[in-house]
Automatic annotation (TrEMBL):
Region spans: Disordered: 23-61, 625-650, 1144-1164
Domain Peptidase M16 C-terminal, first and last residues per copy: 240-314, 836-1062
Record Pfam families: Peptidase_M16, Peptidase_M16_C
GO MF entry, a single one: metal ion binding
Stated name of the protein: Uncharacterized protein
Superkingdom of source: Eukaryota
Biased segments, Polar residues type: 38-61, 635-650
High-level lineage: Eukaryota, Sar, Stramenopiles, Ochrophyta, Bolidophyceae
GO biological process: proteolysis
Domain Peptidase M16 N-terminal: 76-228
Ranges annotated as biased composition (Gly residues): 1153-1164
């Protein structure tokens, strides 16, 4: 993007610099000081000024420019999804631009500007989605809309259908909403509503995971503003601000020369540019400046002057105004400015956390520097380590830059697999480990991170092993086979993206465009990127890769005796339970000693593992085909669809059965080019575990043991894992209440290739590779004791974490009460976990993986006939009686519900709701005040079946006093109940927002959902609302009132229904472009255990949604009885026993402000 030329219609950044320099004199006459981007020395992309000798190509269809008022934009035409577009307005101001008295004002201003937009409300009911978010470095407002105004909308015949600008275009409506954000009026009533929403949001996000992230960011960025400028800010300040405060911040920063508009979608560029001129051309920085006082202008000017000595000015205007102490070789670089302005907030201020101000740095005997911090808390159950080095973002604008970036990707991929293999070894010390380096525009630096989790008693062992592995990588690099393996993966990935082309979704394209531009990288098309990747890999040497490995790991290697220290600090944060009785506590000194000891640990080069090219030999496969003689049989269904032929490819789905009983569904989808998704489902899950008499939790632990293991046939776990890596297979095995599921993501091209160009040796097709893995799991999986041990450790940790999480604990307890203590619907406890043996876990899982019961759904960019041939060859040769021996070991084997049995599904129902309904109160020890409330009641499953066997559709028909023939036909459709429940959920959520948040100002977020079981009869609805402890009861009552009003005083309107229909249909059509969603929809189409689900659930979905009436939904609400026999609950925190504020002995930072996770911004 940086090198766009005139021929490509681009030149955005060149034009940006030239035009703002030309207008600098004129702009400086405005009421505000010139925007810092007007500085002649500033390069908006990065600090590289010289034209590179070998520049990367740029995307040829981007169009970008700057209006005379400084407003900049970038347009990228994109075809998928057709008929839609996205517009993101990026304001280059976030929380890092706040002054001392403004902490949290960027986020509140975003709320007021977004929620106060009357023109945004015009988008309601058009199938549009809008939102906004605030981060350290920017605030973004966005709209995702259809291109044309939907027929039937109130705007179809309105003035917005302007023939001169393109008839029926939604672009104008979207731009109206975004431009109004730039001129927000900030009504007092809106400010008060959003003040309450932000205060509620502060409570909602303050989970223990969030607090850990605050500790991490505050320590990592101790030397700059980010440590003290989180987006939500300070509670006392939020409560104090007036309209004038919001206006001051808005008028200072929401200037046309301080924003960039991105538009990506199925749009006409000329139309969009005309709309941009019309809607944004009249914005004026001078008008904003005139509303500020002299003192306010001086504040802005003083801050703007200081920004010139930060990465925001020196590298990219997209970055926050920060400096960093780089963890790189050379002298330590500090900010040496003599300015009295404390831009980096190193002085002490009111509302500061003194622990943060006093964070030490420890100089090692070697000359290196470590910045340690230890955080302990009652809610933490595991130890976690977070070790960082900060480096400059290296803009990728030349071929040489790109080659280095590919080398870096290969190194990181190899390191992660090495760590994963260690994590699945015999008795591994850590339960999670990740090593990565990411360019972070939000932080203005590249962050190299090591993150791991371990049992508290084994924290030293975990740190030593992980740090030692990084040292090994830094000293010895990769092996030749690793470079080939992960280089091939890079090329396959690039090929997949290139094949996707303009079918990449607008949101993905826009996200990548924003990230690329922000970091100063060249923005290439997928095809250009693939070509460059292929060229890079053909020229890449082992030495180049290992040089990148040395650079990535030098901060670890430098801690060893005799090594040259790096200039900046190595940042190390340890987090763990507050347990002073621990035999080996992790304190500051112990943490430093352990890391340094690990850096001095003797390491040796990595040894190669022999990785199989195929898991099934041709001889074994031929023998199985001869013995089993696989054939296709017709498919049959429970929704009235006629049986499908066994010898024809049908559209849109090919649904058949194999002669061994396995149900198979295959369909081609090129929505994700060169990719596929396979899902295997086995009815049963936790309820099957109980029905068959296995120990509680045996099936769930067994599924996790499978995930932790992986050996089968003659292959070890390490060999199988590397086979999956070579063939880009991702495997996820789960057990929920009603199914065991195995999900596989796979490429559909030849993978596992070795070499490039003329030296290429092709591997097997990805479809074949994934079917080999499925075959071996079903018929030859090896159950290992160490894998069960890892599964148990994971379950223990999850259970402890659940009961230290307010939301999780409260939801768990209310479900337990509503199911009368049925263990199938609650988490597996410690005693149950410990009691499960390897044989019990194996029998519980394998007894459900019977060929006659399982179903395989396969979706992807492949030829259906070829895929069916592979399925016949690999899955058709699994013996029909495979795994029957495990079912025979079940204590209640005689109760097994088999396909074709006379037992009528559902085989298991949710227990009858204990009546009358009741209120429950739960508490959790936590010094920070938080609360959550629930309203819940009984509901049918996704297909309308209640726990007593009745069906929602039948109940509605009986309640209708005068149904028409068409009413009966519509309600008799097998998909009716599912669509009705989806629409009700959407309508209730909208009502909750309007009533509980907007009108009553009691919460930031309230939501409504159904459990959505498919095999189990019955279920629940659950309304969840977060609120302050003082308002939790009132918020809960407001949710109940909302449900009552829907049934009585404020029934569903036609507008409510039409708006909900657009949302449901748009969501469905959007998700249909993913192979995972389609494979999930296909699961159960041929299962007897899921009555009413069949091919019609896909083919008739949109038509059924559109056919449902207001009367249908009102009758459905009456049948659901959402106003009676309700269970309500409030979970809230209480002070820990003997708690004394500020005297907890662990020296933690105090409660962190919201919105500071490394993972992303504060939305809404």
């Amino acid at each position: 993007m940086r090198q766009l030329n005139a021929e490509s219609g681009g030149g955005f950044f060149a034009k940006f610099v030239n035009e703002i320099q030309e207008k600098s004199t004129e702009s400086s006459k405005s009421s505000l000081p010139p925007h810092p981007s007007y500085s002649r020395s500033f390069q908006p992309n990065n600090s590289v000024i010289n034209i590179p000798s070998s520049p990367l190509p740029s995307h040829t269809t981007t169009v970008s420019n700057t209006l005379p008022n400084g407003f900049s934009y970038c347009i990228l035409p994109n075809a998928s999804p057709a008929g839609r577009f996205e517009a993101h307005l990026q304001v280059f101001t976030g929380s890092s631009s706040e002054l001392q008295h403004q902490q949290g004002l960027a986020h509140l201003t975003e709320h007021v500007a977004y929620m106060g937009s009357r023109k945004r409300e015009r988008l309601f009911g058009t199938g549009s989605q809008t939102n906004a978010y605030t981060d350290f470095h920017h605030t973004v407002f966005y709209a995702s809309c259809p291109v044309d105004i939907p027929s039937g909308s109130s705007y179809t015949n309105s003035v917005f259908n302007n023939p001169a600008l393109g008839k029926g275009k939604m672009v104008g409506l979207a731009f109206d909403a975004l431009s109004e954000v730039m001129e927000a009026s900030c009504e007092v009533s809106r400010l008060e509503k959003e003040r309450q929403a932000v205060l509620s949001e502060m409570t909602m996000v303050n989970t223990i995971e969030y607090r850990v992230e605050c500790q991490i960011l505050s320590t990592l960025h101790r030397e700059n503003r980010l440590a003290k400028r989180f987006p939500i800010g300070k509670e006392d300040l939020i409560k104090s601000w007036s309209r004038e405060d919001v206006i001051e911040f808005h008028r200072t920063h929401y200037r046309p020369d301080n924003v960039l508009l991105y538009v990506v979608g199925d749009v006409d560029v000329a139309d969009v540019e005309r709309y941009i001129v019309e809607k944004f051309g009249g914005l004026s920085a001078e008008k904003h400046g005139a509303e500020l006082t002299q003192e306010q202008r001086e504040h802005a000017e003083n801050f703007a002057k200081e920004v010139t000595r930060t990465v925001k000015s020196e590298q990219s205007w997209h970055y926050p105004p920060t400096v960093h102490e780089w963890s790189e070789k050379g002298d330590r670089v500090r900010d040496t400015s003599t300015s009295s302005y404390d831009l980096h907030l190193q002085n002490r201020y009111d509302m500061d956390d003194e622990t943060l101000n006093n964070l030490p740095e420890v100089e090692l005997p070697t000359g290196g520097v470590v910045r340690p911090h230890v955080f302990k808390h009652e809610l933490l159950q595991s130890f976690s380590l977070h070790l960082f080095a900060k480096r400059k973002i290296r803009p990728i604008v030349t071929v040489e830059d790109f080659v280095a970036s590919i080398a870096r990707r290969i190194v990181l991929a190899a390191m992660q697999i090495r760590l994963n293999v260690s994590a699945r070894g015999e008795s591994p010390p850590f339960t999670f480990v990740e090593f990565n380096q990411l360019d972070s525009a939000r932080e203005g630096c590249a962050v190299c991170s090591l993150d791991l989790m371990a049992e508290p008693a084994r924290w030293r062992e975990a740190v030593e092993l992980a740090v030692g592995e990084i040292k090994r990588l830094g000293l010895y690099g990769l092996t030749k086979s690793e470079v080939e393996r992960y280089g091939g993966a890079c090329l396959t990935d690039a090929a997949q993206v290139a094949a996707q082309g303009d079918r990449i979704s607008h949101s993905d394209q826009l996200g990548y465009l924003m990230e690329t531009v922000s970091c100063g990288h060249a923005f290439m098309s997928p095809e250009q990127s693939y070509i460059q990747t292929e060229k890079a890999l053909q020229s890449l040497t082992l030495e180049q890769v290992n040089e990148e490995a040395r650079i990535l790991c030098e901060h670890i290697v430098s801690l060893a005796d005799g090594e040259e220290p790096i200039g900046g600090p190595v940042v190390v944060i340890g987090c763990g339970p507050k347990d002073n009785a621990s035999p080996d506590p992790c304190d500051r000194d112990a943490l430093i000693d352990t890391v340094v000891k690990a850096a001095n640990r003797e390491v040796f080069p990595e040894e190669d593992i022999n990785v199989p090219r195929s898991l099934v030999s041709e001889e074994d496969l031929a023998k199985s085909i001869e013995e089993q003689k696989p054939e296709w049989r017709s498919g049959s269904f429970t929704d009235g669809t006629p049986d499908t032929p066994s010898d024809k490819v049908t559209t849109p789905l090919t649904l058949r059965r194999l002669s061994n009983g396995i149900r198979v569904g295959v369909t081609t989808s090129d929505a994700e080019s060169q990719r596929g998704h396979l899902r295997l489902v086995a009815p049963g899950g936790r309820v099957g575990e109980k029905l068959l008499g296995f120990a509680p939790g045996a099936a769930a632990l067994g599924a996790r043991t499978m995930q932790e293991g992986g050996a089968f046939g003659c292959w070890t776990r390490e060999q199988v894992e590397l086979f999956c890596v070579d063939h880009l297979l991702m495997v996820e095995i789960n057990c929920n209440d009603e199914f065991i599921t195995l999900d596989f993501v796979f490429p559909t091209t030849e993978v596992g290739n070795i070499g490039y160009g003329d030296d290429l040796k092709a591997g097997i097709n990805g479809c074949e590779a994934v079917l080999q893995v499925v075959r071996e799991i079903v018929r030859g999986f090896k159950w290992e004791g160490d894998a069960l041990g890892r599964a148990k450790a994971s379950f223990h940790s999850t259970y402890d974490g659940l009961y230290k999480n307010l939301e999780g604990m409260s939801a768990e307890k209310i479900v337990g009460e509503m199911t009368d203590g049925d263990q199938s619907f609650v988490s597996v406890g410690h005693e149950e976990i410990d009691a499960v043996t390897l044989d019990e876990a194996k029998n519980a899982v394998m007894s459900q993986l019977l060929p006659s019961e399982i179903e395989v759904s396969m979706v992807g960019d492949f030829d259906t006939k070829e895929a069916l041939d592979l399925v016949l060859k690999y899955l058709g040769t699994i013996p029909a009686n495979a795994n029957e021996e495990f079912l025979e070991k079940a204590p209640n084997a005689n109760l097994a519900v088999r396909s074709g049995s006379p037992n009528t599904p559902p085989a298991y129902n949710v227990p009858t709701l204990p009546l009358p309904g009741r209120h429950l109160d739960f508490s959790l020890e936590d010094p920070d005040p938080r609360a959550i409330a629930y309203v819940s009641g009984t509901a049918p499953n996704s297909w309308g079946f209640f726990s007593d066997g009745t069906n929602l559709a039948d109940s509605i028909q009986k309640r209708d006093k005068n149904p028409s023939t068409f009413d009966g036909q519509r309600r008799g459709h097998p998909l009716f109940a599912r669509c009705a429940l989806l629409l009700i959920s959407e309508i209730v959520n909208r009502r909750l927002f309007s009533n509980v948040r907007e009108k009553r100002q009691l919460t930031y977020d309230a939501n409504f959902k159904f459990t959505g079981y498919e095999q189990i009869g019955g279920g629940f609805f659950l309304c969840t609302v977060t609120a302050s402890k003082e308002k939790a009861q009132e918020a809960m009552e407001a949710c109940k009132e909302t449900l009552v009003a829907l049934v009585e005083s404020q029934p569903i309107s036609n507008d409510n229904l039409e708006s909900a229909k657009r949302v449901v249909v748009n969501r469905h059509e959007g998700e249909m472009r993913t192979t995972r969603y389609l494979s999930e929809l296909m699961s159960g189409l041929q299962l007897d255990a899921v009555p009413k689900k069949g091919p019609l659930s896909l083919t008739d979905f949109n038509a059924m949604v559109q056919a449902i009436t207001v009367k249908d939904l009102q009758l459905a609400l009456a049948a659901l009885d959402v106003t009676n026999n309700l269970y309500t609950a409030i979970g809230q925190t209480v002070l820990p026993k003997d708690y004394v504020e500020g005297k907890d002995g662990s020296a933690p930072l105090t409660r962190g402000p919201a919105g500071g996770t490394r993972g992303g911004p504060l939305t809404g």
